[in-house]
Amino acid sequence: MDYDNKKECIPDTESQLLKRQLHLGTGAYSLELRSFALPRNFYSPAAYNYVRQTFKDALPHPSTLRKWYSSVDAKPGFTSESLKAVEIKVKEMKSKGKKLICALMMDKMHIKENVVFKEKANLVNACLDHLCDSEVIVKTLTFNGTVSNFSMAKCLRADFTLTNLKPFFKRPGSETIVHIILDPAHMLKLCRYTLGDWKTIFDENLIPIKWKYFEQ
Known about the structure:
Blueprint: H1 3-6, H2 12-21, H3 31-43, H4 45-54, H5 62-70, H6 80-95, E1 101-105, H7 117-133, E2 137-143, H8 147-155, E3 168-170, E4 177-182, H9 184-198, E5 200-202, E6 208-210, H10 212-215
Parallel strand pairs: 1-2, 2-4
Antiparallel strand pairs: 3-4, 5-6
Helix pairs in contact: 3-4, 7-8
C-alpha cells in the first residue's frame, strides 16, 4: 500500500493506526487512541488484547496503559484528563451528527471538613459549567436522599416539599433544566431502616405496614 498517496483521505485516528501497522510511526499516541484503548482494556483485558492483535499491535501495550493510569492527576477538583475524555466523546458524537447527553451522578465522599450544602451546590454548578463548556448536555442529577442533599437541592432552587414539589432546577445563567432523581436503591434502604426502627408505618389510606411481617 502506498501510504503517502492515501494519507490525505484517511481520518487522523485511522491514519495513525495504519502508520503503526506499517511501522511508519512510533510517536506519542493521540488522545483519540488513548480514549479508545483505556476503557476497553479496563473492562475486558482479553478483548482488548484480541483487538490489539487484530491491528497488529498498533494499539498501546497493556504496560503502557498502566503507566498512563499511574500518571493521572488525581488531586481534588475537576481533572483535566476527565474533561479531555469528555471533549473527545463530544467530538466523536459530533462527527456522527449527534449531541452528547449525559446524566450527572454524585455520591458521598470526603472532600474536606465541614463542607456544607451551599458549597455542595456550588460544586454541582461548577461541574455543570465545565460540562457546558465542553458542549455536554446534562439532563439529570442523581444523588442519595440525605438531609444535606435535600438542602443542597434547595440551594439549587429545587424543592422536595409535598406542597410545592419541584424536582428540577435551572443552571445559573441558562434556561437548561436539570431534573433530580433520588437514587432508588438508597431510598428503598431508607424506607427499610425507617420501618425497622418504627416497626409500624401507614400508607396513604392509613393501612398499617408492620415490620413483623418482614421478620416472619
